[in-house]
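Dear U.,

Please find below the material for section 3 of the report. The protein was modelled together with guanosine-5'-triphosphate; I have listed the sequence and SMILES used, followed by the predicted complex structure.
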Amino acid sequence: MPKPTTRSFRLGVAGPVGTGKSSLIAMICRELADELRLGVITNDIYTDEDARLLRSAGVLDPERIRAVETGACPHTAIRDDVTPNLIAVEDLERDFAPLDVVLVESGGDNLTATFSPALVDAQIFVLDVAGGGDVARKGGPGIARADLLVVNKTDLAPYVGVDVPQMVTDAEAARGGKPVLALSRTDLDSVAKLKEWVLAMTEVVRSGHHTPVDPGPMAPHSHVGDDGVLISHTHAH
Ligand SMILES: Nc1nc2c(ncn2[C@@H]2O[C@H](COP(=O)(O)OP(=O)(O)OP(=O)(O)O)[C@@H](O)[C@H]2O)c(=O)[nH]1
Ligand SMILES: [Mg+2]
């Protein structure tokens, strides 16, 4: 199988279970499908539930949404051995060339799962207010180093007793000034800010001016080479 001729901007979306990762991807597709050529890869442990949910949302051609059933903890599939995901991304890039952005949803995990830079160029980490206002202070690689931290479902804050501005301030302190976005699907200004961030990051990555987050050593992984043969390697970037 030939290598994809064009490479997309690969954007990872990670975060604890149920914080709204699939919903955020659906939102990005709904907002940007007219401006960018998009594809989606979802990671579930045992099902293709997330891919089916996204297909049924009707925000993107269903064929552009594919599931990788990891059968393992999400961390393994997005960080330790990214090969099945990388192959899924490259297949999508080949089948729908050219794609501008491929969104990769991690399976829901705890605070430690982040994407290897071998798989994605940039990553969003999603928390929600229902997980508690103090989660932002707890840190971890996703909270501290993701390119964007989303504090999601702010519409629920009054019901769970969370002070959103305080949670955002705590998150900013844990991130040394990297961006934090308070988001709710009911707050259209926040949805517009998410859209702006994705468009701006797409430009930065395209121009080659973005350094991927790498909280650890690059995982060994495999690509399909020009001649269709699997090449396994590690590299330093
Ligand atoms: N109130 C409120 N609920 C939301 C919002 N965004 C998502 N949800 C709800 O949160 C629940 C979980 O959303 P998902 O998008 O499936 O979350 P996820 O992180 O993809 O879940 P997993 O893939 O299972 O880890 C669903 O019931 C959504 O409808 C929001 O802005 N406000
Ligand atoms: Mg999901």
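For the text of the report, you could mention the following: Strands lie at 9-14, 38-44, 65-69, 101-105, 122-128, 148-152, 180-182, 221-224, 230-233.

Regards,
Y.
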